[in-house]
Structures are given as C-alpha cells and as structure tokens.
Design brief:
The structure holds 2 protein chains of 2 kinds. Chain A is an all-alpha fold. Helices cover 78% and strands 0% of the residues of chain A. In chain A, helix 7 packs parallel to helix 13. The longest helix of chain A has 36 residues. The N terminus and C terminus of chain B are likely disordered. In chain B, helix 4 runs parallel beside helix 8. Classes of the chains: A mainly alpha, B mainly alpha. The interface between A and B is large, with 110 and 111 residues.
Chain lengths: 281, 333
Amino acid sequence: MSRRRPAGPSRAKGLSLHLLAVLLAAFVLVPILFGVLGGFKDNAQLATNPFGLPAPWHPENYTEVLGSVSFWRQIGNSVLVALATTVLVVGLSALAAFAFARFAFRGREVLFTIFTAGLMFPFAVAILPLFVLMRAFGLLDNPLGVILVQAAFGLPMTIIILRGFFAGVPREVEEAAVIDGCTPFGVFWRVLLPMARPALATVSVLAIVASWNNFFLPLAVFNDPDWWTIPLGVQQFQGQYSSDIARTLAYVVLAMVPALAFYAVAERHLISGLTAGATKG
Amino acid sequence: MTHPALTERPEKRPRTGARPGPGPGPATVRRRRLRGLATVALFILPALVLYGLLVLAPIAIAAYTSMFRWNGLGGWPEDFVGLDNFTRLFDSDVFHGDLRNGLIIIVLSLLVQLPFALGLALLLNRRMRGRAVYRLLFFAPYVLSEVITGVLFSLILSPESGLANQLLRAVGLEELERAWLADPSTVLPALFAVMTWKYFGFYMILFLAGRQGIPAELGEAAAIDGATAWEQFRHVTLPLLGPTIRIAAFLSIIGTVQLFDLVWVLTGGGPDHASETLAVTMFQFGFKRTQVGYASAISVVMFLLSMIFALAYLRFVMRRDTQGAVTTMGDHR
C-alpha cells in the first residue's frame, strides 16, 4: 500500500481523480445501461428518446425472450458444456500437475515445456483442422466436440497454476501420508487434492468463464440450433431480428446476466487466476 | 522425494513400458522403477493424449492440408499443389490488409490501451473512496463474451438510432456523425474502441497486481531522497513494473493475432475487408467458401507468426524476467 501525505494541493487532485474515475465508470456503464433501458423501449422510442427512461415501459421484449424455449435451451447447453469442460480439464490437469510437481522422471521438463507452449499458440490456428478431425470422429453437432477441445486447450494454463500450487505444499505432508501407507494416488486424492481446494476453485472459474464465452469453436461444431450455446444464440438473434433493435438489446442483456452474476460471486477467484496465469505463463 | 521408486533414473520415457514385466523374479529395484513409471504414466497420459490429439495434431494436419487444393469435403485431400496456397496468399491484397489491420491494432493497443490501463492502475492503487467498486466495475466487461460485446456495440454504433450518433447529435456535433462500422476510415478505430472497452480492465488488474507487489518502502525512500512524484514513477515504479508490462504487451499482441469473435460480430471483416483479420479471412475461406487448403495455409501462417513472435519475445524481451520477478502475484490471496 502506498501512503500519501495529505498535502495542500492533494484535495484538488483528489477531486479530479474522482472525476476521472466517474468518467471512466460512465464509459463502462453507459453501453450496458443503454442495453438495459433500450430493452424496455420500442424501436420508435429508441429513435426519438435515446437517453431518457422508457416512456412507457415495454417489458414485452424481455418477457418474450424469457418465455422462449430457445433462450433457455441455449442457457442449458452453455451450462452443460461449461460444467463438463471444467470437470474434465480440472481433473486431467490436477493429475498431470501432481506428477509434474512431485515425481522425478526423465523428460519431465521437456514434457512440461510442451504443455506450456500451448499457451502461446492461438486457438484460431487449430479451428479448421479441428473441424476436419471432429467430422472424422463424428463429433459435429455433438457437445463432446466442443467439450473435449475446450478441455484440451485449457490444459496448459490449468496445469501451470495447479503445478505451482502442488509444488508449494510442504513435502512433510505427503511423507507422513506415505509412511502411513498411502499410495501415490492416495496421496494425491486424499491429501493434496483437498488441500488444493482454493487453487481448484480458481482454475475452475477460469475454465467456466472461458467456456461460457467461447464462440469460435461452437460456431464451427454446432450447426444444429438445438445445440447452440448462448453466444451463438445471441449472434443468430441479431441476424434474425436485425431491424428490431429493442428486442435484440433485451436478448443481449438477458444473455449478460449469467456471466455478470457469476462474476459477482467468483470475482476473487477469477482475478487471482488471471494474474497468476499471466505471470506464470 | 515422495515415492522412492520415482527418484531413480528411469530407463524409458514415461509413456512407454508402463507395465511391470512378467519375467520371473526381476530385481526389486527394477520392478519398483517400472511401477514408478506406470504411476507417472497414469497421472500424465490422459492429459497428454487429449493435448496431443486436439492441440498438437491439428497444427500438423493444417501443415499437411495447406499443401493441397481441397474443398474439405469427404476423406483426405489428393490434389497436391506444394506451396501454391502460400504463394497465392502472399500475393493477396486481403492478406496484406489483414497484416496491416493487425499491426494497426497492435500499435494502438501498445500506445493507447496499455498506458491508459497502467495510469488507471496507479490511480486505483491510491486510497480513494469507492476504489473497490471502481475496480469491480472496470473489470466487469472482461467477463462478457466478445459476441455479446460485439452485438451490443454494433447497435450502439449503428448509424441511425445508435447511441454514439445520438450523443453527437445531442451535443450539437452532427458533423462528426459517422456510419462507424460501415465507413472504411472509421471502422478500425471503432473496433479498437470496443476492444478497449472490453479489455482495459483486464490490463488494469494485471498492473494493479504488479504495482501492489512493489514494496512501499522503495517509493518512500525515493521521496525522502527528494524525488518528485514523476521521478518516483519514472525511476522506481516503472522499472519495477517492467516484467508486468512486458507480459501485458505479449498477451495483447498474441490476442490480436487471433482476433476473431469481435470482428466477426461487429463487421464480418468489412466494409471491403477494411477490418478483416487473419482469423476472419481463414474462416471465410475455410468455412464459407470451402477452400480448405488455402484456409489451412492461412492457419499455418498464423501459427508461424505467433510462434516466431513468441520465441523472439521470450528470447529478447523477457529474458531478464526471471521467474518470480513479477513479485508475489502468484500466491492466491
């Protein structure tokens, strides 16, 4: 923490600081508020009364979206894909990270470097061959086609963070467990994994957010609207109702709600994960 | 070391020879070693298989298919054309435009977005009322998907009832009104503005974490020695933030190379390729125009660009940043 001495001009400085912060807050908030309020207007109001409160309020845009099957189906698909991706990537990464942190074996560093190299190359590079692969496996229009790929691309970051955590656990802890007769898997499962709960929460939050926001991969894999996730649904909705701005705004706003709610709950984990990931990668 | 067997020198790579041999009464040492290898394999193989199949193999596949003329339909490509796809790509104006657009966005990010985020982080590092709220708020756009951001801003930037032009009209600046996303001269700045809206909070958080890792005593010592606020920033804070800044620049550049979602939703790469990126061109040819061989060549170029950049960056720019130099951000508080 940097402490500031309260000096003469610091009052004016403090004021201008606050002014700047408020301006920036407006920069962030105004687009979102435009969306929220716009969703309650009709298109005529959007043209004539862009800034004011809706008069009258039109909740239909929201209620129609909330009453539609496709919206909830997309939410359900997004939840399913995100949860499955997270379980898979965290499970596999925890196993691998444990081995990387705790076992000495030849080729360990090379193998670890191969995993970390994955952080550097863009997902977009792989999308086309992945499409070809998924078609060969018959995984197009199959949630596994998205889940497996997302999990695979999540491995580098997750392994790096978890390895760092496992490496920081004192060896005495597991030596005691081994003396008590624990197998390596027993050490992992009964001792280290429970200790790693905060780190697991962090990487899970990262995985969920990444999956929830993924657009490129589902766009390539899901042709069938029944499997669309929320980002696909939003994009499609915009195309379909391009002239109905108010209705599109309502859809976008409702699609934002789960992400923002999740952020409100998991903000701490998200930020610690992002900063840890960025610095260790 | 945990498992005694594992500390001994293994004879084979972990992925091979994972079973204890059935031979009659081998030395216990050997058996323990094999069991150790089997254990390692059990822990690492699942991740390695998934990673190899879905992350590494696609690169090889792209390299292979990039040498064929192929519509992507059925089976494997047959019409081998060598490097023709690449020569065609290097001659293409769209490709040159992609590189130019990427470069412009990178330059804007490094010169505008990162300094802006850095300044903001330093401001929010001070004690001020509502600091936690501001931090929470500024970071919020990061959690929204690029698609949602893109659709929202395509409506905000739309020519008639869009908020941007309405605001200009309201304050009497009608002459500044633009069809932001449909005008080749404004589309890149508009795209960049949206990127800034979404990502400045992320960089701010990175810088904040880096700033909080710098001991306050350093600044105080400099102040006692008579350093002004600017001198403290210039000679204490900025150098110590070096590693964080270098990482932020790295993430920003790598992110730009693969920029797709936002562009696809906002403009589709238009008007007339004015906002097109490599990933958009690749998607166009690969998924819309079924020139999969050509699109693969674009993938390969993207891969080489980011690989060469990443290696050069690690070698020449970040080599001084030994592990842990970015303070203690790693420990999860």
